Give the backbone structure.
Amino acid sequence: MPSGSTRRTPTAAPGLARRRAVARLLPAGLVALAVLTACTSEPARRPAPAPPDKDDGGLQVGSEVVFEGDYETGDFTQWTRCQNRKYSDPCADYDGDFYGARIDDQEVRQGDYAARFEVRNGDDPSWGGGERSEVSRYEEAIVREGDERWYEFSLKFDEDFPDVEGNFFIVMQWHAGDDSSPPMALEVDRKGRLVLADNTSDDAEDVVIGDIVRGEWVDYVIHATFSRDAEEGWAEVWQDGELVVERHARANMTTERNYLKMGIYRAKQERSTAIVWQDGLRITAP
């Protein structure tokens, strides 16, 4: 943490995004029109890199897909609960109106859709906590003692993403099963770095992943085994196919289970507008 700062404990609260190729059969008379439309109106999308060759010691991900939250449904229904300044209910009932989160079909990393999260000054809900616009997943995204998981996802910070002023700015969290703080979270610190943090103790050290990249998609893989015991739990992080945080021991649970949240959750001290896109989340197990 930056010198002189005090971590405020939050209360409540895609690695390599994979392009899904979808075959579409068009009547012969529409082929030319389809090609013309794609060339003139389709937003530029960088192809997702393939995982490194595992025979060369590169990244491997799990063989069993346990959850996909890539927004390819065109809405938030893959997720369990949506929370923002005006809403805290099932995502299945979220109408997608702009309360801070919406589906974007222009700024995407893979497929046809991504999620755009925006938080402005004062976007703290009446039911408490910091300023937020988040989605949560229970069920398949829950981890328990000894579970090993790979989290593949992509992030894009807005070109005008502000400097962080408050005590925490979280974009992904493995939240404790109760209302306690997340024992592992992906945060932006006051130095503009993306860090893997532990919010359960003011003495916990953040593990630096690297400077955030504004205006560009970046692919991540977080590989972890979960445990309340620091001798059993660990994590490592890949960025754009390169190992940037080596495997290190950490107690990344405080209760019998963690559930997953993504979006923006930040301290009330923030005064600027912050926008983050997320895409391609895919969770696998061995």
